[in-house]
Amino acid sequence: MVHLLTIFLAAIFTHNIALTYLLGMCPFISLSRNINTATGMAFAVIFVITLTAAINWPIYHLILVPTGSEIIYYITFIIVIAATVQLVEMIMERFFPVLQSAFGIFLPLITVNCTVLAISLFMVLRDYTYFQTVVFAFGSAVGWMLAIVMIAAINEKLKLIGDIPRGYRGAGIIMIMAGIIALSFLGFAGMVKIQ
Description:
Order of helices and strands: HHHHHHHH
Distance between the termini: 11 Å
Structural class: mainly alpha
Largest sheet: none
């Protein structure tokens, strides 16, 4: 049985959902231009990923598996994700309207963000216990947050420096930065492994 701390650290560094698996790139590229927007989106993603994984595990293991209905787990997971994102949208509309308007279309797109669904699918494929699932989900979301905030911070510094060649501006420079950071995270590969 894999230790919870190992799962948490591996989800952040060696199995970073954004830098290793390249999942969740649409909001990652679009919202990593400003550190405040990136941080806000990252907290929303942490909440959604952790909550949906914590809800999807009992649904899968206590309802779908005993009834032999595993075939509909994709649909079930997506419904839970959509409901959780709707909850986040209502909370943000009520308490953080400025941040919600900064997200624009990307907040509702968390519903179809492959990162959120991938965490629940990894939970099934790796046969995690409930606590392993919650720790993996939280660690993966923290890893995604770490990646997007690092990219946003570097991006803001590059704007101060200026003179980025035209072909590299926007998504190009973000992908180059993500690749360099992914290579640096690769240095942790021998330390923690969860597969």
